[in-house]
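I am still learning, so would you mind making up any protein sequence you like and the tokens describing how it folds?
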Amino acid sequence: MNQLHLILFAPLLTLLAWASVTDCRSRRIPNWITAGLALGGLLTSFLPQSGLTPLGSIEGFGVGFGLSFLIYLMGGQGAGDVKLLAAVGSWMGPAKAMEVFVLAALVSMVVAIGYVLVRGRMTELCGSSMVAVWRLITERRAPVVGSRSIGKPLPHAPVIFAATVCVLLYRARIWSGGVV
């Protein structure tokens, strides 16, 4: 990643780090962080160096919001996580917002399974997952996964932060000619 991209993405990475710390401490992401990130992404898209148009910023916001809102409806994450991923999308555009979402979902799954294994609650997770799948098949609607939780919800902002950094670094390698 060249210096210009570091400067352009510095506010995104700084506020994502702040959101991560806050989420780990209180399991909440303040609205001022998500609103500031979303507005910053939109404003940055007006700069010719950003590589993103204002329309691309709005589309990225929509993709980030839409994908994570589906997970929210099933009880898989909080509303702050939805707003945070939407704000990341406003900085990165729709394709990279999708990449961040997929990577964050995969990392979250691994972290959650690891957490359950360490806590010795894998049987309970499998049982509640089977019930959720059964309800999805028989009731033909998405079950509310979070209704019977196996513990405190895990903070998702650090995972979104890590996924964003990975996507930015990977894209920087492509832009610099390191990956075909």
About this structure: The chain has one domain: 3-175.
